[in-house]
Amino acid sequence: MAACAIRRGLLSAIRSYHKSSPRILGWESGPYERRWLVLSPCTTCGLSAQQQQPTRCLSSRNRPEGKVLETVGVFEAPKQQGKYETGQLFLHSVFGYRGIVLFPWQARLYDRDVTPPPSESKPDSTGAHGSKEVTGKTHTYYQVLIDTRDCPHISQRSQTEAVTFLANHDDSRALYAIPGLDYVSHEDILPYNSTDQIPIQHELFERFLMYDHSKDFWQFFAAPPFVARDTLRAWQEKNHPWLELSDVHRETTESIRVTVIPFYMGMREAQNSPVYWWRYCIRLENLGNEVVQLRERHWRIFSLSGTLETVRGRGVVGREPVLSKEQPAFQYSSHVSLQAPSGHMWGSYRFERANSTFFDVRIPPFSLESKKDDSPNGFLPGPFASLV
Predict the structure, then answer these.
(1) For FRET with 312, which of 30, 215, 276, 380 sits at 20 to 30 Å CA-CA?
(2) Rg from Cα positions in the chain
(3) pLDDT tens digit sequence for 366-375
């Protein structure tokens, strides 16, 4: 499985990066799986991956029958400091897909697992399940494109149409998505390089990025060979209010970590009244060894207008995902609308253990804040899927 292969093989190979540059090979092992194999120095012949043919160190024991291994690229050392540049190729450390960085976002991470100093501890203004107020720390995220070849292999663990927009017309119900667009945290980036001039398959790749032929051999390894086109810069500037990632909220309960990222989408008129829309992306991660399954969700939604709504239901987005050591994470997006320009959300998930006992996992409280409404005017290139 993708996440298992990444965690067990790729990270250990990257740690020995300075000894050799591991080569990434890949194959499909099922309709919902894409596996990666890192070719490290051979213990038999002693040659590094760069000194031999990619398949020379592979035996019938570790090569899937009937599958051909293709070279994806060569790993680079992950950046402990600084940001990745536009055009950086990477593997996602959790979901295993190939992607490329479009541009970074500087977000405020509110991590409730980090205990603040006594002088900074304050009562939580939201009053949500007695949680403490925390101070936001600057954290880097990236807007990325997902390789469409990998989308079928991650669709059971992460939505590939999670970045949505309000339609640019009077129909307040219409939402549109750009498939294969995602937000990735800095620590989830496993960088690599490739000599392929089109290493990522996505309809927006060649509209947003181009190969820089002016870079010489050494510059190729010092910086990504792909640079932003004017189209990407214009698209980022035009849609900045709807793409911007500003706040990230995180909390862990009984080894289940919940990360929430809210986004303001804009305002629409409905029956002569303003309706404010937000989307929120949630990632559930099992940090322990026990297999658990999400069974129920429980939301509390407070509006500045004074209303408090309670929402209960089975699973999330029609699924009841299982989180295990092999498949530890599930990511999805949903939407909420209010008749006021701001509000709060918080709640909990109910999980079931293998022994049929249940436990509740807190969803960290987060604010829903509107911005000056200037709806996108149609400059959204690429494929769209109507979510009406």
Answers:
(1) 276
(2) 22
(3) 999 998 755 5
Q: Which amino acid is at 120?
A: E
Query: Tokens standing for 203?
Result: 């309809």
Q: Which amino acid is at 235?
A: W
Residue with tokens 């709640």: 347
Q: Is the pLDDT confidence value at 51 over 50?
A: no
- Record the pTM: 0.80
